[in-house]
């Protein structure tokens, strides 16, 4: 017994001594003595999963891009908080008169973190490795995003004209191509590092960005330090740490305790609590996505415009958003998200009006309503957190106008296959934008070409007027003219009602009050270049 | 003895082949096309076909299986679909974290479990026994994630005694070598940074308690019933009648024999901990293999899932082997059977 007692006493003493030893506060940060300065401090950003790799050309998931964004720059970049484009490593660019080639003029004096100067050859290397099959780095792919953005069918060649001029020869006129170059996969990498590390560039990223990569412990944290030579002016943080905390509640608890400064993906049910907690603020923005119910125009009764409009009047988006999305969504009226340039806010949304819906149904010859299937997504997505629940609310709303709904669901892979093939009458789906260009929504989801099976346009809505406007906008290099074309296209969409647009998600980023100048980007980036900590 | 061990080792081979085969077909026959699921709503037909080719999913299943068995024989689990890294390296990077946590959880559960079990048995049918067993029942039935979150709310956010998660104070910029943090930080005690070691230990306490609660309860219950059984034996009566002190009777004479079934339970529980660490690792942001495997399953990362399950199953089988051998050392009757 004595031995056991001794052992227990020893354990208790050990635990207590650890506690007393570790009473250093985890949240302490060493900051610059000069408290008025924006400079100094360490920011810890907690997110839900680890990066797969840090080579943005190879990876496809948002978590990987979180990890590569601090290190790399692109030729052009998104204006902070918007979807429009501004110069980055390229000071300017100019299209040839035929629209089939574009020259980029690079900034002078920019250096990669390893000291290699940024020049036209580095830019050529960064792109050629992704599509020139005999390029020495091609085998380190697969270069998935290059394929996703259909770059093979856009880009003919990339060549260095002189030390600071790069020319892209194009296979077709494609205005959205400039926006593609602001995406992560178009990051400019140090060719010296790429040759040195080979496939291991994914764990040793070297770019020109605001932060230099220091270390990465898998599934735990990635550490960066300030790049004092950053071309884009001052970077204020000494260090940036991106930490993995998989559980949303644990992230919130870590923020409350002050161990981390900014957290990603909060639970919607905690948001009210967060907003009312002292020392915490929540920055919000609509996500670059849309959730919708596609009405299959190839199947009765949805081949009738009046029925499609009736569906829009009979479904109450506000009730759906309140019941399913809560703090994490906003009702939609257009196929484009509100943060997208050329979003047409003059369009008046279909109000919830069951009487009007009944009138239209009677006019269309369905005075007694009809039976229909609604397909519900089996998985949660940012644009639709619970397809089944949304379908149930629609079912109840549509019953009021005499439409009897049967809810159908399949395993996710099967669901996507069947909707691509148009087996549904009406199906829910959604889309998250890649490059902040309206074309990436309207062409991919609603053009006649996208209605070819397997279709991206699962409403199988074929409207030549709409498609023509989008095709014109693809070839128009002037953003003002493109805006006008897309605004007109949205008017046609509204009138023809191929979908019932449901909602856009709202992205919320809770953080300490001391975090200053953090801006959310619609394209989903997390950028800390100009963020500073109030002392 | 040697013969017994060799026999047991030989038995390992068919067991492991069975495990690998089962894992391969379970995953290969799961519904849904992994390429389609991975690409989601952005997939075009060409993209899906390209990915299927990349993954070797276009080959017949039997051919895939044959190739897989060949590779596993060389301890090569292929490359993770998600990261393109070798699965074996991914496992090596994360396994130490899980082992460290599981060992600490097991030490906590074993010491406390045996102690509670013995006290319960000696105070049979008193309030002490009763409350210990009700406590054990709670321990077994408590959902781990709930217990873990409550512990963080109370002990780290409320009382500010512990960190909310992770393995070491994130602001220390410490880079591990072996990935066993207690070992890695130990040398810093002598280089003027003892706080590294204490921080690593500090971070281990809450997750160890959370992960160790279920085995603690099971060990306590097993110890109690085994102890009661032994205390009824004739030889204990003999020892007692010789006038030996009661505490000595219990800890010296009775506990030794009572521990035999407990050893088996400890072995089993340790194996279960390796796979049961997923929830604990998720809540405490502990970068171990459980969490990694869970994400691999979500992403349909075949090679990673197969490799992970095979490694965990192998550990389970090996731990059982060690337990059996230990058991046969303390109880020679087993070998004869």
From TrEMBL, chain A:
Annotated Solute-binding protein family domain residues: 85-448
Top-level lineage group: Bacteria
CDD domains: PBP2_DppA_like (cd08493)
Keyword Transport assigned: yes
Single GO MF descriptor: peptide transmembrane transporter activity
GO annotation, biological process: peptide transport
GO cellular component: ATP-binding cassette (ABC) transporter complex; outer membrane-bounded periplasmic space
Database matches in Pfam families: SBP_bac_5
SUPFAM superfamilies, per the entry: Periplasmic binding protein-like II
Keyword Transport: yes
Keyword list, A-Z: Signal, Transport
Family: Belongs to the bacterial solute-binding protein 5 family.
Family matches, as PANTHER family: OLIGOPEPTIDE-BINDING PROTEIN APPA (PTHR30290:SF9), PERIPLASMIC BINDING COMPONENT OF ABC TRANSPORTER (PTHR30290)
Entry protein name: ABC transporter substrate-binding protein
Protein's organism: Thiospirochaeta perfilievii
UniProtKB/TrEMBL annotation, chain B:
SUPFAM superfamilies: MetI-like
Residues annotated as transmembrane: 9-30, 97-118, 130-155, 200-220, 258-289, 309-330
A GO molecular function held by the record: dipeptide transmembrane transporter activity
Membrane topology: Multi-pass membrane protein
Compartment annotation: Cell membrane
Domain ABC transmembrane type-1: 95-327
Gene3D superfamilies: MetI-like (1.10.3720.10)
Keywords: Cell membrane, Membrane, Transmembrane, Transmembrane helix, Transport
Presence of keyword Transmembrane helix: yes
Pfam families for the chain: BPD_transp_1, BPD_transp_1_N
GO CC term (a single one): plasma membrane
Family according to the record: Belongs to the binding-protein-dependent transport system permease family.
PANTHER family assigned to the protein according to its UniProt record, in alphabetical order: DIPEPTIDE TRANSPORT SYSTEM PERMEASE PROTEIN DPPB-RELATED
Name this protein carries in UniProt: ABC transporter permease
Organism: Thiospirochaeta perfilievii
